[in-house]
Amino acid sequence: MITDEMTDSKGKAAVGRFYDTFFVNEYGKLESLRAGRYHTPFSVVLMNVDHGSKTLADEDVQEFLKRLSPTVLDAMRSCDVVGMIDDRQVAAILPETDYFGSLISMRKLSRAINNYLINEPPPVKKLIFSQATFPKDGRGYGALLSTASKRMSEKKESLWEKKEFSNKLFWEIIGELTGSTFKGFDNSSFDAGGGYSLQESFIDQINELIIREITAAPHKRGIAYFASRGQAAAFPMMSTIGHIGTLSTKVFVVGRGDDTFRDIKNATPIFIDDPRLKEVFFSFYLTEDSGYCLVCKENWGSTYSCFHSSDHYLVDGLINKFQVEYSLQEQL
Amino acid sequence: MIEKNKILLALKNEEESKVFTAYLFSMGYETMTAKDGARALESAIQSGPAIIIVDTDLPVIAGEKLFQILRNNPHTSKIPFLFISDSIVDVKGFRSGADIFLIRPLNMEELHARVRQTLSLKDGLGFGSGEIEGKLRQMSLADILQFLHLNKKEGVLKITSGDLTGSVFIKDGQICNAVVGNVEKDKALFRLLQWNEGRFEFIPSPIAVTRKIATSTGNVLMEGMRQMDEFKKNEAQFPDKKALLKSRIDASAMPQGLQPIIYEIMELLKTSQRVEDIVEMSTATDYEVYKTIVGMIARGIIEEQKFKPGEGPLEALEFLTHDQAVSIREKILSRFSDSGGAASGKIFLIASSGGLITSFLELCRRIPGFTVTYKSSYIQTSKENPLGPVAVLKLYGGMEINIFAIPTVRGTGPLWKSFSSNLVGMILLWDDEGGKDIKEMVAAKQDILLHRRIAVAHVFADVPADDAGAPRQTLNLKYKKAFNLKLDEPIFRMDKEMIFEVFYALFSNLIKEDYVTA
Q: CA of B447: how far to CAs of A287, B144, B413, B414, B453, in Å?
């Protein structure tokens, strides 16, 4: 049971409230020293109040954060330290938490806050999250905060936030991705098959490439989903996943009952009887270093409208949507 | 005694327990159920299940407590736990890799997959050990396979010889598949049969791989031994593995109805001309490939390329000194030490056409330790739009530099960013034809450099001899301007002399000594 005395002594404004800036900064510095000494990871999650085009006064934001604080604290673990780092930003220090652990925390936070915001009076508010993990993103607390801030701006620029995909259903997003033309280095569309310069097998080549990346570093943690048509025939590389030792990447093969895939070691089959999977297939691959997604829609005459992206946030969001909407295990 | 297929289910919800029991029964597992933690504890100690599926919120003794009690008991400490919970719970003593944590709602298929995965892991790695093991010098692989066949064994036979490792998957005594490196099926098995030195270990475990060797064990072993004998007998007639082959007729003009291996070799020749590469990439066994190559040479379909002394691509040339190779290795290892990757670096090869990549790689073969791999199941496509590893440069101490090709067709940008881990350099390759779309390559270069600080080598496929001289200088200036290069930054010619310079330029930062100021 948390008492007022306890929270006061720890620099907390009140029960169920965030810690103050001084406490969080000091704790962050100590945590980075501890992590450095014991070679353990820890993560920092940054929350920023976004209010779209309307400007909110600092006082309004602070009032809002005060109301929100019990919801945030309920969603976090008891070992996590959450506090204000400036008037509009909240940081959560997650001890012994790696990149994937921090993503899970962000998902939990996001869900809890979205539920809370349903009853929140206007103007509409939204929270954007970003994270950084010790030691990959920085060895000091300051470096981690700066990486997380940089990622916050990247996230605001990501397709996931720009197109507000978080408010859309998985198949709506897929439809939008394959139905529009994207040009750029992060998000791009291409056509394959038929008379196009890229053959149909280029799509399989990309999948093969993902599998090669997975098998080349079996100790590297990651998650991959493959929803491919005519799987065994189009996917000879998949069997190699079963021939190597233990994989740290979780590989899921999405499709309808296909016995050849049921039997691959290191790959978990997910059988979904959805007619949409007959004409659309996708691959999602997420690691701490990179994210990649490929979504292809089959058109008439064996041509394919494909979208692919190296946007981490989009890949993470798509994986999350897919897991939630098909009642799959929410995991990373 | 731990029973192989028995699962203990301890769930608080009876309905859920019934559903799980029915599903797991249909999958061939025997289940025991317990309504609370105390009964689960009793059952676990008495029956020794293979895995315990437990609710974290069990009445009487909570799931976490049950886990800790059983972990402290030497008879039950090795039983893996599968926790099911409504929310994430931090379980003390959770063994990552052995225990599993799942959150409701559950997908039955996934539950089954996790159970199966845990059980196979438990049988294969954590708790069991090789039932039969020994040295190949004492017992040949053929004898071991016959022994396993007669005893109708099921499991994996692992063979190691030096740095090489191979596996033979056996079910009911029949060989289902064999794997060695990137090779599988009969081809891999026949290679393994030739290993005389090394160790073997048979790990009994349920085998779920697709049967890829259809012939019975007796027949496949007989055929393997025959091919081994034939290979030894005819070895003198076979072309040298380093020899280069050339097609004498157009592949499309080949008559129908020939043996499939002939078409396959013709197809492979478009990508690689070296005998050893063709043998490696073909799906047929080594002996069959060599025999077919000899036959094709005799019939005039292909020919061996002859080189004058000093001109050949095969003479050993000095590339990097020992110190330079060590320096490259050390720098790559220190730069990517926290990425969890193996001892390897990556060089992007971005070319204006697939044909240029093939020609470039052919020139690179002169570099000691350089091997063209084209690791792809889609040889034809990979030639036109190469994607992924196309060659490897082996350096000192097992360090590998993977040459990684990415097509420059529009819209492949996300591939550059996502697959650029361990990137140490980039080669941009274009010819006069590709120079028309140079903007795309320039944009690619800028984008990659924005994310990674790496060395870039610019290689321009030479203009024809008639046009050499002044036009080349003009072209150089034009491309230097396009790539925003300084006047003293080189654009390399694509010829056999300059190929070393290209790699020296890429490695220059890695070779350079670090100066430490006092």
A: 21, 55, 9, 10, 11
Which pLDDT score, from 0 to 100, does residue A29 have? 93
For residue B412, the chain A residues in CB contact (below 8 A) are: 188, 190
Q: Would you say residue B157 has pLDDT above 90? A: no
Which distant-in-sequence residues (6+ apart) come within 8 Å of A144 by Cβ?
Answer: A28, A32, A43, A44, A132, A133, A134, A137, A138
* pTM as predicted: 0.66
A76 interfacial to chain B (CB closer than 8 Å): no
A102 interface with B at CB cutoff 8 Å: no
Tell me how far apart the alpha carbons of residues B5 and B314 are, in angstroms, rounded to a whole number.
58
Min Cα distance B183 → chain A (Å) is: 10
> Which residue's entry shows tokens 């909407």?
A325
Helix/strand/coil for B99: strand
Per CB-CB distance under 8 Å, the chain B contacts of A290 are 417-421
The token pair at A205 is: 């080549």
- A236 touching chain B per CB within 8 A: yes
Do B396 and B325 form a contact (C-beta atoms < 8 A)?
yes
B337 → chain A, closest CA residue: A136
Task: List the single best residue of A133, A256, A266, A329 to mutate versus B (max B Cβ within 10 A).
Answer: A329
Residue B518: pLDDT band (50, 70, 90) is very low
Residues on chain B touching A242 (C-beta within 8 angstroms) = 208-209
Asked whether the predicted pLDDT for residue B1 surpasses 50, the reply is no
B430's tokens: 């274009």
Question: For residue range A200-209, what is the model confidence (pLDDT) as tens digits?
Answer: 778 888 888 8
CA–CA separation, B313 vs B319, rounded Å? 14
| Best of A108, A187, A259, A265 to mutate (most B CBs within 10 Å, chain B) | A265
User: Quick check: A204 and B377 CB within 8 A?
Assistant: yes
The three-class DSSP label of residue B159 is strand
CB B387 within 8 A of CB B403: no
**Burial, B441: exposed, middle or buried (Cβ in 10 Å; 0-12, 13-18, 19+)?**
buried
In sequence order, the 6+-apart residues with CB closer than 8 A to the CB of B175 are B145, B149, B168, B169, B189, B213, B217, B220
Using the predicted structure, report yes or no on whether residue A144 has a pLDDT greater than 70: yes
Number of H-type helices and E-type strands within chain A: 13, 11
Residue B235 reports pLDDT greater than 60: yes
Interface probe, candidates B159, B192, B374, B418, chain A, greatest A C-beta count within 10 A = B418
Q: Does A308 touch chain B (CB under 8 A)?
A: yes
Q: Considering only alpha carbons, which residue of chain B is nearest residue A256?
A: B109
- Residue B245's φ and ψ, nearest 5 degrees, are -110, 160
Distances (CA, A) of B126 to A186, B47, B155, B203: 42, 20, 15, 12
